[in-house]
Amino acid sequence: MTLNLTPPAHPPTAIATASTYAGRTIKQFMRTPQLLVVQALTSTMFLLIFRYVFGGAIQTGDVEYVDFLIPALAAVSGLFASGAVGVAEDSESGLFDRLRSLPVPRWALLFGRSIADTALICWGTFVTLVVGFIVGFRISGGVAGALVALGLCVLFAVAFSWLQIYLGLVSGSARAAQGISFAVFPLIFVSSAYVPVSTMPGWLQPIAENQPVTAMVGAVRALTLGGDTEALLGHSAGWFLVRSVLWSVIILVVFISLSARRFARL
Amino acid sequence: MKHYGDVHALDGLDLVAPAGKVTAVLGPNGAGKTTLVRAVATLLRPDSGELRVSGLDAIAQPDRVRRVIGLAGQNAAVEPALTGRENLVMVARLFGHNPTDAKTAAAVVLAEIALTDDADRPVKEYSGGMRRRLDLGASLVGSPRVLLLDEPTTGLDPRTRIELWESIRTLVANGTDVLLTTQYLEEADQLADHVVIIDHGKSIATGTPTELKARAGLDMVEIRVTHGSDLGSVAAMLAPLGTEPPRLDETGRRVSVPVSAGTDRLADAVRLLSESGIALDDIGLRRPTLDEVFLALTGVSA
Asked: Residue B181 in 3-state DSSP?
């Protein structure tokens, strides 16, 4: 080699690998304003449509619809995110081939991706909260509850980032990833995110009642509403909290292992 | 051997790329070139067989192989939103360099691929050729012992292709092992010391470009006559010089005579024709291109 370079003595650590790929991906986000704007617009558009168009027709008992809606949107930002498309783009561009030919722990690359995607999801959550406050959302559950709610939103963001990573890995192309992303929409709509489950047809209620989004949305809602959530939402804050954390752990375990396996043989 | 369902992508491919040389794997689309590179790059695992890279067992110890290879794939796998320098620093870090060494390695490679002046511009402003050069650079920041180039110039215009060849030649001048795949015969001819022609996952010929050309046989004495009516008499006159009957091209007013010992036969042809006084537009010796080698070996044009 004509290059006067010494090869490195050791392969990179898992932490160096994850932070390098996360850093690159966050830089990519920051320098692609369209991406940040689209993420913000998607969050805002659904928020405004439900707040001002459908909201008036939805009965949420003693809870103001805006206070019912905003915690839900904050909790599910990760399902509206474009993580799957980003992963598919890196696969399609040949970047994954290069990265997988390097002496890195391959799973650490995926953790780096998850860190960056979580940051992007949190940006969407932030926009949702800011717009939410502008259109009348108020927290009545106290500071501690609000902080736990925020922590839960981040936990859900991490969990959904792994779902998105897996969808991106199996989709094969950015275009397909875009399509697959819509597959998660029933998960959002057949839940208590926009309407109380009690208004759904009887056969649909058990599905809506027992799926992860309802648990997650319920936990954030209960913590921000405060007061007697049992009376307002049908269950205590603790009931929602335990279920939402369990669901997050299940999502993480399932999609981290599926993604790692998929990425290793890709 | 790599099986894809019922298809054996590399069915009994047996090849040795000599150390310190540029080995070109040449073949048409679907011949198994990319599968081969992906196997050597540890991106896929052969179902059977043996694969050694720089003496390391690529099937048992892929991690060790990854420390000695550099890969530049078919796409320029560089991030458009990042600058050229940032792209190289990222790969250098992932090769194991600490932040300081990664910056040094990136700077050295940028100078080598003549991108220092554009190093701090985002790659989205780069031309196609600059992106390929950067991609080539990314395969070098880890100082690999084995460089894998999968169709490095596919999709480039001829001028950019020649520029990239220059870069590759400079970079490999000092005896790095290079495994290069290409469907361009000219590229193999330009860059490689050793050529392996593969088709349908099998190696069908190996040798230096010169040896392979010699195997397709034969030099041609080619004559273009001024008047088409002279074609027959020229062919008859030169037939004794050839190892095979002369080939006639009526529309091009051309006679091609396959010969061995080309330069001697060319001199004979010139003498015979000047004695006969037949008017000629052109006479010359044409050596076979690798394209013709391929045609001769596979029966299909590459």
From this structure: strand
- Find the Cα–Cα–Cα–Cα dihedral A220, A223, A228, A233, rounded to 10°: 0
Distance from the Cα of B266 to chain A's closest Cα (Å) equals 43
Are the Cβ atoms of B94 and A27 closer than 8 angstroms? no
Nearest Cα residue in chain A from B144: A7
B255-281: b (≥16 Cβ within 10 Å) or e: bbbbbeebeebbebbeeebeeeebebe
Mean predicted lDDT score pLDDT of chain B: 82
CA distance B86 to chain A (A): 8
Q: What is the pLDDT of residues B231-289, one digit of tens each?
A: 888 888 878 877 778 888 888 888 888 887 777 788 888 888 888 888 888 888 877 77
CB spacing of B142 vs A3 below 8 angstroms: no
End-to-end CA distance of chain B: 24
Where are the strands (E) in chain B, listed by range? Answer: 3-4, 7-8, 22-26, 52-53, 56-57, 69-72, 146-150, 177-182, 194-199, 202-207, 219-225, 247-249, 254-259, 280-286
8 Å CB contact between B79 and B124 = no
A8/B41 touch (CB, cutoff 8 Å), yes or no: no
d(CA A5, CA B144): 10
* Residue A135 CB neighbour total at 10 angstroms: 15
Partners of B111 on chain A (C-beta within 8 Å) are none
CB contact under 8 A, B96 and A28: no
Q: Could you tell me if A175 lies within 8 Å of chain B, comparing CB atoms? A: no
User: Over the stretch A86-95, which tens digit does the pLDDT of each residue have?
Assistant: 999 999 998 9
Interior/surface letters B40-68, b for 16+ CB within 10 angstroms, e for the rest: bbbbbebeeeebebeebebbeebebbbbb
CB of A10 within 8 Å of any CB in chain B? yes
Neighbours of B79 (CB within 10 A): 21
SS3 B267: helix
Size of interface A-B (CB pairs under 8 A): 116
Q: How far apart are CA A113 and CA A255, in angstroms?
A: 13
Please tell me which residue of chain A has the smallest CA distance to B145.
A1
> Are B143 and A1 a contacting pair at CB < 8 A?
yes
Radius of gyration of chain A (CA): 20
**Contact B117/B71 with Cβ under 8 angstroms?**
no
Sort out which chain A residues have CB atoms less than 8 A from B81's CB and list them: 27-28, 31-32
Query: At B25, phi and psi to the nearest 5?
Result: -105, 115
Note whether A100 contacts B: Cβ–Cβ < 8 A: yes
Interior CA angle at B54 toward B50 and B58, to 5°?
Answer: 40
> What is this structure's pTM?
0.83
| ipTM for the assembly | 0.88
d(CA A163, CA A165): 5
Three-state SS sequence of A191-228: CCCCCCHHHCCCCCHHHHHCCHHHHHHHHHHHHHHCCC
As a whole-number percent, the residues of chain B with pLDDT over 70 amount to 89
Give the residue on A whose Cα is nearest the Cα of B109: A3
Please give the Cα distance from B94 to A16 (Å, whole number): 8
